[in-house]
Amino acid sequence: MKKFDLLIIDDEEVIIDFFIKISEAENLFIDTALDGKHGLNKVINNRYKLIICDLVLPGLNGFEIIDEINKKNLVTPIIVTSGYSTIENAIKALQYGAIDFLPKPFTYDEVLCCLKRGMNYASILSQQVESAIDEKKSELLFVPCPPSYYRFGLATWIKIENDKSITTGLTDLTLRTISKLDELNLLNEDDIIQQGREYLSLNCDLGLKHKVLSPVSGIVTEVNNNVLKEPALVEKDPFFEGWIYKISPNNIDADLSYLTSCSTDRF
Amino acid sequence: MNIINKLGTKIIIAVSITSIIIIGVFAFISINSQKKVLLEQVKHHANQLSETVKNSTKEEMLFNRRDRIMNIVNQIAEEPSIFNVRILNKSGEIVYSNDSNEIGFVFKESSEPCFVCHSTEEPTGELEFEKKFRIYTPSKELPRFIGIVNPIFNEESCWSADCHAHSPVKKFLGVLDISVSLESVDSQISSSQYLVAFLAIASILSLGTIISIFINRLVVKPVNKIIDATGKVSSGDLKYRINSSSSDELGILSGSFDKMTENISEMKLKIFQTDKMASLGQLAAGVAHEINNPLTGVLTYSSFLLKRTKENAELASDLNVIVRETKRSRDIVKQLLDFSRQSVPKKIKCNINHIVERIFGITKNQMRLKNIELIKKLDNNIPDVIVDPNQIQQVILNLVVNAIDALEEKEPKIVIETKVTLLKAHGNVQIREAVCPSGHSLIDNEHKIEGMPAIKLYTKLGTNAGYIHLDPIYGLQRHHYGIQLIKDKSFTVHCPECNVSLMDESKNCPVCKSPCYNLLVPGKGRIEGCARYGGVWQKWDYIDNKGEIEYLIVSVTDNGKGISKEDLEKIFDPFYSTKGLKGTGLGLSVAWGIIENHNGRIEVLSEENKGTSFTIKLPVKNELRD
Fold first, then answer.
1. Residue B626: pLDDT band with limits 50, 70, 90
2. Which of B536, B493, B492, B486 has its CA nearest to residue B511?
3. Which of A108, A226, B44, B52 sits most deeply, having the most CB atoms within 10 A of its CB?
4. Which of B303, B360, B393 is the best residue to mutate to test the A interface, defined by the most A CB atoms within 10 Å of its own CB?
5. Chain B: closest CA distance from residue A16 (Å)
């Protein structure tokens, strides 16, 4: 069993080469696979901190690989990338448990940003595993979503209010994967948002922008001005005072089918 | 085609054979009866003659004046038609004859004049009328003769006469035998035989000719036209029409054929369109995957290089161009992908004015650059409508971008207007549901009129039956007829599923008194209409009682170069673009689809060099839509 930082599964050599280059620059130990079966074998036989997986592959496709990984209870976080970069694929990837969706073609910065978040997530996860083994080290690495909430992937949460409106925000886990939150780029009131499309982008160190995908479709009825004034509020209390938008949803029932109830898991 | 195999030839042969048989039998019977009549006349004549001779010689016999008898016999025999006159005694000896050589000749009982009576053992004495006669030909050169045998009975005067030549015991004294020539009768018969045969042949020939002319005109030519048309249509010429003016079965067949061709060509167009859309979807998916991968290579390496050459400003700016242009390509592929999966609208309540304002924001820079005067006529009191705001934004943005592209340099101007209009239900409301009394839906999702599922009815006119598709817009008459109907003739309609009649027996059209059909709209009353080909009357009380219906209107008008008439027909077709390489030709076809999904309509008015106006009509209230 070998240990790597990163596994990249993609049938395009040029993309593999690029990831090798970016890994060298970032000092990451990388392994590669050109098709689904090899990829899955490597995932099973070796240890990786993070997997980046294309969707359309010879042999097993991306979703099948994630399925297999989930079945084997392997906890390695996965970032899904695809040239067929539709909203449907993005939503489905997050629903399958991918931590992010990276649409092709991407720039160096987009990949770097995604990788950094992924590695941060991976390190949180490994710490969590360690703390589970050694109870002395037990500490709260991140605050999970309150049970009555729903999450979209691991990045955003929604809460259905009594008046059927939706309050949404970022999860604590997301915020922990970003080294520091300087500024939030938010939408305006009355803007239309759609599940799987850009919801907000986070400015953080190195001048990198993190794109976050929207958990629901609808119209933004209210933007939390407090977090615009003081982004740190989001980090302080992401699930209550640090909410981002209030949304009037289009079709919450359809959206919910892609969301995960927070009452059943530890995220 | 072999001449024997032709339909016309076959019919002519059949008719000719039939007429030959009928006329032949008729001629045979008529000649035979003529023969009979003539012969009968001759028999009567001969019988009369024989009786006359018998009576006129009786006296002379009694007085035994032999020379006088001879005289009478000779005198009678002078008549040319009479061949011979003989008187034979009981023993068969010729006693008197016009042919003196014969006198004294004795006939045997079996010989020709005697045979009639002596064929049986004992002569009966009395001779039936028919038995008196015999027809014979003495020799080949001579014509036929009819012989009449008249027995001379013994009477009291014969044995009481002075000569006492006969004893009273005898029953017969002899026979009078006269032979009459049948030459004139035979010639009459043969000439009438010729006449009848001639007439029969003439009538058979003329019958054949006349029938062949009619068959040619009424059957062969129209059938050939249909065969021609089938050939043309099957070889792909879907514009070919027979245009038959006849109203017989072949005319109806031609009409139905035309109708069928029309339907096929419409269907083909539709399939072609759907095919285009479907293949576009596949194409877009393929393009997205195939192009995005190499694009990824370009974008990753160029952005990577850009990172490493921050110090070299000149190189960085060049690389920036590559990154920027690759990002642009990425956006184009993304648009194509978005088009390939036109999703079901996610509708929410929203204000169209907000959407329009947002579009102003998006296009502001472009308009300023081109010095375009933007006139907003937004009605602030428009009600919220339930639409998919993303899709509606896409449609209006598309119209605005098209308007910007159409503008020319002189005083470019765009007017965007939103308002609410009341429109009559009649001519505007779509019939979305209709059922037969057994509950079968009459809406045919496979067959659309102007993009909307039509109402399918099984229709009968006389023995002709087929389907018609009624215009789903209440009050409009863009029906599709799948069968040949006759103008101003009324037809009956039935459920295509269970054939139950949809006619309303108790009601007639208030305009033309024709029968009416009556369709049930679940929860929304009934639609009645005139079942006459060409009838326009239609009534839907439920909708009429609701008064006029509110429509939200969004119009985008420019004073640009306008759209030509030919282009106007095609602008909503996918891939149709007048922008050359700048456009994909997808925008308006997508817009049409989106507005259609919102149960609205999109209309266009344009005049070349004056400008174009697109109008979107969306129903404000939901209840009439869903």
1. very low
2. B536
3. A108
4. B303
5. 10
User: Are A84 and B296 inside 8 Å of each other by CB?
Assistant: no
| Angle (CA) B331 B334 B339, round 5° | 130
Alpha helices in A166-251 (DSSP H): 172-177, 225-229, 232-236
User: Which domains can be identified in chain B, with CATH numbers?
Assistant: 7-188 (3.30.450.20), 249-340 (1.10.287), 349-423+548-619 (3.30.565.10), 443-544 (no CATH)
* Two domains, one topology: A3-133 and A150-261: no
pLDDT (average), residues B547-570: 85
Fold designation for A3-133:
Rossmann fold (3.40.50)
Distance CA A185, CA A200 (A): 6
Alpha carbon A75 to its chain's center: 14
Q: How far is CA B5 from CA A118, B9, B19, in A?
A: 83, 7, 21
- Token readout for B218 is 């009424």
Asked if B304 lies within 8 A of A86 by C-beta distance, the reply is no
Q: Which of A86, A106, A111 sits opposite B341 (nearest CB)?
A: A86
Residue B146 · residue B82 · CB < 8 Å:
no
Tokens of B143: 């014509």
SS (H, E, C) B209-225: HHHHHHHHHHHHHHHHH
Q: CA A33, A34, A37 angle in degrees (round to 5)? A: 75
Residue pair B337/B378 in contact by the 8 Å Cβ criterion: no
pLDDT above 70 covers what percent of chain B?
90
**How many other CB atoms are found less than 10 A from the CB of residue B160?**
11
Residues in B whose CB is inside 8 Å of some CB of A read 285, 288-301, 303-304, 306-307, 323, 326-327, 330, 334, 337-338, 341, 346-350, 354, 358, 388-390, 393
Nearest to B484 by CA among B261, B267, B258, B265: B258
| CATH T-level assignment (fold) for domain A150-261 | OB fold (Dihydrolipoamide Acetyltransferase, E2P) (2.40.50)
Tell me the residues of A at the B interface, defined by beta carbons under 8 Å apart: 12, 14-15, 18, 21-22, 56, 83-86, 88, 104-109, 111, 190-192, 194, 217-219, 248-251, 254
Q: How many CB pairs under 8 A join A and B?
A: 94
- B202 CB neighbour count, 10 Å cutoff: 11
Query: Do you find a cis peptide bond into A105, omega within 30 degrees of 0?
Result: yes
Work out the average pLDDT over B108-128.
68
pLDDT digits (tens, 9 = 90+) for B484-524: 777 778 888 999 888 888 888 888 888 888 889 988 888 88
Nearest to A192 among B323, B349, B393 (CB): B393
User: Could you give the ipTM of this predicted complex?
Assistant: 0.83
Contact A18 B295 (CB under 8 A): no
- Band the pLDDT of A50: cuts 50, 70, 90: very high
Residues B87, B169: contact at Cβ < 8 Å?
A: no
CB of B503 within 8 A of CB of B518?
A: yes
Residue numbers in B near A192 (CB within 8 A): 389-390, 393
Tell me what the mean pLDDT of segment B452-457 comes to: 84
Which residue is associated with the tokens 């993070």?
Answer: A50
As a whole number of angstroms, the distance between CA B331 and CA B325 comes to 10
For residues B11-41, one letter each, b for 16 or more C-beta atoms within 10 angstroms of the residue's C-beta and e for the rest, the string is bbeebbeebbeebeeebeeebeeebeebbee
Domain boundaries of chain A, sorted by first residue: 3-133, 150-261
- The predicted-structure confidence for A214-237, as pLDDT tens digits, reads as follows 999 888 889 999 988 888 888 888
Kindly report the average pLDDT of chain B as a whole number: 82
* Euclidean distance between CA atoms A35 and A10, whole angstroms: 7
* Amino acid code (one letter) for B17: I
